Amino acid sequence: MSLAALTALARSVGFPDPALAAAVAMAESGGVPDIRGDNGDSYGLWQVNLPAHPEYKANPQALLDAATNARAALAISAQGTNWQPWTTFRTGAYKPFYAPANA
Question: What are phi and psi of 31, to 5 degrees?
Fold first, then answer.
């Protein structure tokens, strides 16, 4: 998915800063909805990590759906207010993809 498509997706599920949510997703997955990382432990656009979020272990394949993954990321991020669970946020790797809407 493009950054614009990720931003639209993030907006559609209710992220308060869709551009930030999209930037994190792009840094995490390169915009590939069905990607798996961390030796198979992380799923989808926002790389939802199953060991850290066992509530998604019952059906991890669902996280490969873009909208499902976006809703999971919204929940994990405390409705888009806490990005600390994402390494790409903590390291700043998301910044090249972030263009704030009011910049």
Answer: 80, 15
